[in-house]
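User: Structure please.
Assistant: Input sequence and predicted structure:
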Amino acid sequence: MWLKLRLYLIMTVMFAIIYGLVVLAANLAGLGNLGGFYFYGILASVMLFIQYMIGPKMVEWSMGVKYVTEQEYPALHRMVSDLARDAGIPKPRIGIARIPIPNAFAFGRWAKDGRVCVTEGIMNLLNEKELRAVLGHEISHLKHKDVVIITMISVIPTIAWYLAWNSLFSGDRENRGNGLLIGIVALLVYLITNLLVLYVSRIREYYADEGSVKLGNGPHYLASALYKLVYGSARVNKDSLKPIEGMKAFFANDPSRAAYEIKELSQIDLDGSGTIDARELMMLQTRPVKVSTTDKIMEILSTHPNMLKRIQRLSSLQGASAY
């Protein structure tokens, strides 16, 4: 409930900020010049709508997705079918991404267009219960309509960017002073709202973790899976990350941060087994964890929460109520 409340509060703040920017532009530039604002608002909305519609094809092409049949991967289809049924959503299409990075992701434009994919790297890394927990996380993204939400709020910084560009580089000499002020304010709004979009993205990750637990997956299985994904990503050649750099927001974790996160996560794996069992996760309810200042700053600029904090939160989800 608190995650939902935070999401609604942030979205309210973001729309209040853009409304304030409109009022400022109206007062400083005159009502007649608001046509430019509306033009950029419509332009930003159209561009994001086009991106939203063609997004699935872009993801498929970037990730090398191949959709598989139930005959090819019966166990994978069975897990996804059961999770989708329990979540109350249509069964998504299931694909394998031909990339070595161990991970999973979900995307799609609407409920019946959902797709859940796993990479080749994850299939031999996780056991069945860990894989089911990760798939539960991805199914929860589809249930919560996260792609729609992030696309919708991304309109706000995009509008602010276009307004800042137009105001700062406008050839209108008569209103140069006011235009400069509007441009600076719009640029600040762009930076702030971009950070808020990233914050919302991190909330959605926590929310999807909670969703996986509500679908019947033990929190320690998801925690162990995330730990293994970080470890597996840290071992992958960095050149493998470059082709999918723009798509990493779709992943269950951010593979580009794995090398840093693996050092922090060693304080959780007390027996050095390479997994996180129920006892180790339970201990995080009372044991403080250490997150460096650098990692706190990196988290602010990331689409995903700090992994140490994320796994610690899973320790509080024991016995979460089902959907």
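The CA atoms of residues 37 and 248 lie 32 Å apart.
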